[in-house]
Write a structure and sequence with these properties.
2 copies of one chain form a homodimer.
Chain A: E1 3-6, H1 12-21, H2 31-44, H3 46-57, H4 69-78, H5 81-99, E2 106-109, E3 115-122, E4 126-129, H6 138-151, E5 156-159, H7 169-178, E6 182-184, H8 188-197, E7 207-209, H9 214-223, E8 228-229, E9 237-242, H10 248-259, E10 266-271, H11 274-289, H12 294-304, E11 306-309, H13 314-323, E12 327-331, H14 335-341, E13 347-350, H15 356-361, E14 387-394, H16 397-413, H17 417-424
Helix pairs in contact in A: 2-3, 2-8, 2-9, 4-7, 5-6, 5-7, 6-7, 8-9, 10-11, 10-12, 16-17
Cofactor (chains A, B): Zn(2+)
Family (chains A, B): Belongs to the histidinol dehydrogenase family.
Keywords (chains A, B): Amino-acid biosynthesis, Histidine biosynthesis, Metal-binding, NAD, Oxidoreductase, Zinc
Chain lengths: 429, 429
Amino acid sequence: MAIRLDITDPDFEARFAAFLATKREVSEEVDDAVRAILADVRQRGDAALVDLSRRFDRVELEGRLRITAEEVDRAIAAVDSATLDALTFARDRIRAHHERQKPADDRYTDALGVELGARWTAVEAVGLYVPGGTASYPSSVLMNAVPAAVAGVPRIVMVVPTPDDRLNPLVLAAARLGGVQEIYRVGGAQAVAALAYGTQTIRPVAKIVGPGNAFVAAAKRRVFGTVGIDMIAGPSEVLVIADAGNDPDWLAADLLAQAEHDTAAQAILITDASDLADAVEAAVTRQLARLPRGETAGASWRDFGAVIVVRSLDETVALADRIAAEHLELAVADPEALALRIRNAGAVFLGRHTPEVIGDYVGGSNHVLPTARSARFSSGLGVLDFMKRTSILKVGPEALRALGPAAIALARAEGLDAHARSVAIRLNL
Amino acid sequence: MAIRLDITDPDFEARFAAFLATKREVSEEVDDAVRAILADVRQRGDAALVDLSRRFDRVELEGRLRITAEEVDRAIAAVDSATLDALTFARDRIRAHHERQKPADDRYTDALGVELGARWTAVEAVGLYVPGGTASYPSSVLMNAVPAAVAGVPRIVMVVPTPDDRLNPLVLAAARLGGVQEIYRVGGAQAVAALAYGTQTIRPVAKIVGPGNAFVAAAKRRVFGTVGIDMIAGPSEVLVIADAGNDPDWLAADLLAQAEHDTAAQAILITDASDLADAVEAAVTRQLARLPRGETAGASWRDFGAVIVVRSLDETVALADRIAAEHLELAVADPEALALRIRNAGAVFLGRHTPEVIGDYVGGSNHVLPTARSARFSSGLGVLDFMKRTSILKVGPEALRALGPAAIALARAEGLDAHARSVAIRLNL
């Protein structure tokens, strides 16, 4: 059973703080292994990829690292048309939403005649890591590939392990729909190394995104600097804030949708109605019994779930900001007003008819969102993650006379005489 | 002497690739020491800060960790008015430019009646690390603090070590001008730990920015996740692309302004005029002789400088994209046309009268820029680094009927039945 807290408990603050500090992930010590793998791929290239895939994925990749367009065609042909339609529907909605995120360049001349500006350009090549096995989600392929395509990335590469030579055809369909142009059947730290350093077959990229296991996460941390990386995603979480006017079964279903992801996932309910809290707890227990992934969801709810009862919805604001949830559902009568008062959340789902699951698939917004309280300082994945801004400065002789003396004064105050000279020489000072 | 390459050399590609791969930093092995310092501060708080500052900075901080407003007042009174005016001028220009970076929220209803949007909010608290000693630059204080203030960060904290109890008064003046509200006289990994975990005196922040030595960089890497961090800055670099119509002395001054920063700094000239290349090399040698920081600049130019001669300016585009310079000066007749063709640069300085130094101080754009080829995938510091985006989704009963079936189909295809159920239960499916 999830923990139950009441804000009127004398030890509430201590228990809430302890709850916030709970670590949900056991950090595996894989760094030494990863270092060796990166060095091996860097030195031996394709040969290392083939050897490592034989060892870790029990698959022979000699001469077939790349997944051909014909293989993708065949995979798509094998997908039933209803699912393909749903995937296409999702792709179109994600694309339409992300088109709005494209940043505008800026250019202007200020009162002193100085021209300033900013120019956004797409990253030249991006690598998308896709996990194999059960965590191989076609929806995540879309969520990573579509923003890159919208950003205008000219080369989008995907890597995906094929343990025992098996691969979910939906993942290949999503790659095609998402605009991926090259796909390689390699995973783990070795795939990250190939994307960062390049091999005979795989040209290097400038940025690597996408979720992965502890090996992949450690490899991404290690190659950061050589290439850019996205955030390191932790287990998923939802915070549901609900008033008395909710169907407990709906809320229980939402909490369990989060909990079924992973035993380390987290589902939290905060409500000002303690009767509702009781009813949701009972509904969770009922629904768990008939859930195919009930064992996973049950462990998540037992170990990391929480039900918090407050006196008024006002009190939820500070708690929500401290939790800084990846997903925040506001199942209350006036969700807009509450949303405006909360600073920290990856995504907010407004009202009783907006289950978080809609955002996972077809809402159009991105489902790659900051976990583990990182919504305090970071955002979900978007078009900006695949672009970068170059600042522009243009000064003519006149404007340089206006700016120069202050630049020279500051350079001298910082003891940087060559800096001062670079300006002074142009002004005959 | 800097290396000299000519694009017509038969071994040009190999030599250019080797030049690009040159490491300019010796990575110090400080990680074990940093881990111990972080643990000590986390456990003992202020007492650890006092002990560590006594040991590393030879300063007694018991009861005086915080720098008071009166101390800042006194420091500002001690700064000469011309320098203070220059600093204020710089602050105003940086603020005006960064105001333009503030992102707009978005909210719209699509054809299916789904409401989507994005809301930008400031990070709740930011810590700014400022190095002590000779690398303690007031201009950098402004470049970090002003974008945070423009973003609307409600709490901006600065930490700065005061070795032997000495502190540059200009740094305190810049902090006041930049909108910093709390200042603590502590540095090193211990200051990063205090900002990330909090102590009795220093409340934790959500994001840490600013340059520092190897200890600070290692500490920032380690606390990443608990808090956000900015990029890890490497040694500075400039690429000057110049045609024949330049004064070699101006270009030499620009190259040396970069080189004087640090023996690991890098200055590169690419030109289509080999006579100019010769003349610039001679001018660098001449100017070096009378430069106060000539020893530093000379070592940088000797070890990491480069002069590359090409046949035409067209050939500079691909080379510039591979170098992906932090600073790119285009001292050519038509800098606008060339700038549009180059994808990778942190900042571009257009024309013969825009020395990079203007951008260091008073241009208005930010001087915290991606180094070590990371302009391929990242941008200079700006207002967005102090904000985060929450995505918004709002679906009514009608729109849910339109979206629901596709979400259910995808959830089932991914084997996530509780996901499917969370939508289906609202549609009586």
